[in-house]
Design a protein that fits this description.
By secondary structure, the protein is α+β, with helices and mostly antiparallel strands. Helix content is about 30%, strand content about 35%. It has a single domain, classed as Gcn5-related N-acetyltransferase (GNAT) (Aminopeptidase), CATH 3.40.630.30. β2 and β3 form a beta hairpin. The chain starts with 5 loop residues before the first helix and ends with a strand.
Length: about 160
């Protein structure tokens, strides 16, 4: 994700997350923070179809900050490609595990993460506000050598991921 993506990402964020959406300032802060890495998915020069972010500051754990896919792009494997890119980046940063929180009522996202090897390790009660929705904490243990750096993309033609 680059600075010029923020306006479009914030618009998508509002569509997907409503009153809990991150502000432009939150994204600017994330992009400026050490150890943060964000990626966007687009069809060529078209609109942003999704984005994801990772905090990996060199410790054992990397933390997924966000994963989002536009409604019209869901069900095409884009969310999986974004998660795969975050995991690959975590490996290059030397992480041994990737952690995330997911809404307890977001079964689709839970299935996506489970299909990629994440397991539930805890619950954060009333984590998402407003609404008092619990967060499930999930972890993926990483093993083996780091993968090459850079974003990965879907194996079939379609949207591409770029920093």
């Amino acid at each position: 994700m680059r600075w010029w993506d923020v306006e479009e990402v914030v618009a998508l964020e509002r569509t997907l997350f409503g009153e809990t959406a991150w502000s432009a300032e939150a994204f600017w802060s994330e992009l400026a923070a050490p150890g943060r890495w964000y990626v966007v998915a687009q069809d060529g020069d078209g609109p942003v179809l999704g984005y994801a972010g990772l905090a990996a500051t060199g410790g054992d754990d990397a933390d997924v900050q966000t994963v989002a896919v536009a409604p019209e792009a869901q069900g095409r494997g884009l969310g999986g490609a974004l998660v795969d890119a975050l995991v690959a980046r975590a490996r290059t940063r030397g992480a041994t595990a990737v952690l995330l929180e997911v809404r307890a009522d977001n079964e689709r996202a839970q299935r996506l993460y489970a299909a990629r090897g994440f397991t539930r390790i805890g619950v954060r009660r009333r984590y998402y506000q407003p609404g008092d929705v619990d967060a499930l904490v999930m972890r993926l243990r990483l093993g083996g050598a780091p993968e090459p750096s850079g974003p990965s993309g879907p194996s079939r033609p379609g949207p591409t991921l770029g920093r």
